[in-house]
């Protein structure tokens, strides 16, 4: 009886070590601007990038963590010669739990993105990530950034640090359908630019945008609040909804109050203008898109 019990425990222990050792060693998918797929095995990822031990600060817990990781920018440069991957609006990251944050391209160009796949100390590949109350599995891959965390522009926002990553998709243009037909100096237009940078990754407007936090316009959600309360909610979500999981608007950003007011103005614009039902759909020239990309990046 004792031998059988010992054998069972041993099997589970070995199996656990095997799972831990191999959980990051899975293929990763990459999609170019036209949607063409390329798949790289873990072995090829390592062959192209090599392995680097990186030390990062988890933005959810503000704790220092050490990982074995792959240089993501090196992978992109090999997959897309002449750095052609940089000529777009952003990169959509797909995870196992269907979270699809879209991270602006300039972050990948100017900062140091790495794909962590294992802890340096050999402990389980887990961390307190989005939810500080419980540990989550980070595998197969965890997008992390090496940065100066005293810099006010550090990529601390949660959607910059997705875990359980399974693919990357290059996105050529910003969501053109959502651009307001207003003067470029209007609050609605500036609100659009701030909405794309701060809100678009998690929220949908008429089905356009990130899916993690659902629709905010067509279901009447924004209409429930006055301008003042909506601005307060954007700036400090838990002050309006106690158990809200939405991240507060960046505290150190310049012109913070104006940016929030502009977003409110833009949301009011969207309430009255469904882009799918517009009688006359404006066509944007390539030069206009390039100018907008430059402004957003």
- Level of helix content? 25-40%
CATH topology of the largest domain: Sulfite Oxidase, Chain A, domain 2
Alpha-carbon distance between the two ends: 66 Å
What's the CATH H-level homologous superfamily of the largest domain? Oxidoreductase, molybdopterin-binding domain
Question: Would you mind describing this structure in some detail?
Answer:
- This protein starts with a helix and ends with a helix.
- The chain is globular, with a radius of gyration of 21 Å.
- Helices cover 31% and strands 21% of the residues.
- Residues 5-23 have low confidence and may be disordered.
- A hairpin with a 4-residue loop joins β3 and β4 (63-71).
- It is of the alpha+beta class and 297 residues long.
Kindly list the characteristics that best describe this protein.
297 residues, single chain, five-stranded mixed sheet, globular, four-stranded antiparallel sheet, 8 helices, 2 domains, Cytochrome Bc1 Complex, Chain D, domain 2, alpha+beta, Sulfite Oxidase, Chain A, domain 2
Topology readout:
Layout: H1 2-22, E1 28-31, E2 37-40, H2 42-49, E3 52-58, E4 63-71, H3 72-79, E5 90-95, E6 102-104, H4 105-110, E7 112-119, E8 126-127, E9 136-137, E10 142-146, E11 165-171, H5 187-198, E12 204-205, E13 208-209, H6 227-235, H7 256-272, H8 286-296
Parallel strand pairs: 1-11
Antiparallel strand pairs: 1-2, 3-4, 4-7, 5-6, 5-11, 7-10, 8-9, 12-13
Helix pairs in contact: 5-7, 6-7
């Amino acid at each position: 009886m004792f031998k059988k019990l010992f054998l069972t425990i041993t099997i589970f222990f070995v199996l656990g070590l095997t799972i831990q050792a191999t959980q990051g060693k899975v293929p990763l998918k990459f999609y170019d601007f036209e949607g063409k797929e390329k798949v790289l095995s873990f072995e090829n990822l390592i062959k192209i990038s090599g392995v680097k031990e990186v030390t990062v600060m988890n933005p959810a817990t503000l704790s220092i963590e050490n990982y074995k990781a792959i240089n993501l920018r090196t992978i992109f440069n090999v997959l897309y010669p002449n750095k052609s991957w940089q000529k777009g609006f952003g990169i959509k990251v797909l995870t196992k739990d269907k979270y699809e944050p879209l991270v602006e391209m300039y972050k990948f160009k100017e900062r140091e993105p790495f794909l962590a796949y294992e802890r340096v100390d050999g402990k389980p590949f887990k961390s307190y990530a989005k939810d500080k109350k419980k540990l989550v599995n980070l595998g197969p891959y965890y997008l992390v950034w090496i940065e100066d965390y005293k810099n006010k522009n550090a990529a601390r926002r949660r959607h910059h640090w997705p875990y359980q990553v399974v693919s990357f998709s290059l996105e050529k243009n910003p969501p053109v359908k959502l651009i307001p037909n207003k003067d470029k100096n209007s609050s609605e237009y500036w609100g659009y630019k701030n909405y794309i940078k701060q809100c678009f990754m998690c929220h949908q407007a008429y089905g356009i945008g990130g899916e993690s936090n659902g629709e905010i316009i067509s279901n009447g959600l924004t209409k429930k609040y006055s301008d003042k309360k909506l601005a307060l909610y954007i700036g400090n979500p838990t002050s309006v909804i106690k158990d809200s999981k939405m991240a507060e608007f960046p505290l150190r950003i310049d012109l913070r109050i104006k940016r929030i007011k502009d977003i409110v103005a833009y949301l009011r614009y969207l309430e009255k203008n469904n882009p799918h039902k517009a009688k006359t759909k404006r066509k944007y020239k390539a030069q206009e898109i390039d100018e907008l990309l430059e402004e957003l990046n």
